[in-house]
User: Fold this.
Amino acid sequence: MTRILWISILLFVIIFMVASCKTQKGLKQDIGEADLKNSKDSVQENHFDLSDSLLEGEQGDASQKQTPGKGDAKSRTSAVADSSLKNYKYSWTDSENIPPVIIIVDDFGYATGSLLQSFANLPKEVAFAILPDLAHTQAAAQAAQNSGRDVLIHCPMEATISKTSPGKRYLKPGQDGETVRDMLDSFYAQMPMAIGLNNHMGSTATQNKDLMQTVLEHLRTKGLLFVDSVTIGNTAGYRLAQSVGMRPIKRDLFLDVPDNSDATIAARISDLGRFRGRVEPVIIITHCHNNAKLVALQKFLTQIQDMGVRLTSLSGWYGSGGVALGN
Assistant:
């Protein structure tokens, strides 16, 4: 009798453990899917400085990540030609109601040499957002001007989540109006061809209404537009723009978050379907840290143009001072 009892208990324990394992596996799968969904939502909707957190390690040594040798131009062309993006299934196929696209490449000022020149060879509609106070700020501004493209001041602003400083000098809450205006003027003097400004990092700064009011009012007096990079969901930047007489402009997508893979690029192409029927362009930001980001952008541009999506420029659409021209 005792033996039967022990066998019964053992069978019960085994059945219980098997059932628990299945339950935990199911829970883990559900949690994993939920985390993946939340991660995607955070990456493409909230952007609480996530892009800067992921990419900040690449900024400082970008100058070491140059494209070496003349043969690389050929390899880049091959990489674009060999792209598997044509094999993906997208959420849309008819481009008739897909808005035009504006591309802004952030963080120039580190890159030089062949990497900078390769970015300068992109279609002229692609804008350069250039960090001030860096060794190659002037070279990037000159390369942009020589290639006939728009320049934005990529203005360093205080961030909530960051392991590195936004820059040698940066805007932050608590600075008086004179300090803010003088810093903006100094950044502008380094790239006087700039048509506007977007924020570098800035999840703390762009939430502060007093700071952003000062920034926007000063930009308006200079005839410069403001593009909110939306590094945090409750940014005050583009929401305040209209109140100071400027057109509210904000980033819609990051191209290179979380990575430069074909799967990520294809996902961003599918995301364009979410803006179907919108008149204003879809504004997409990527970065210039290395050749992988250049190739990813080339692939993206090739694919969307093959699908009939039009590329336009900031100045071509918005003019100066954020006044929409709507071409």
Observations:
- The first helix runs from residue 2 to 46.
- The CA atoms of residues 256 and 286 lie 6 Å apart.
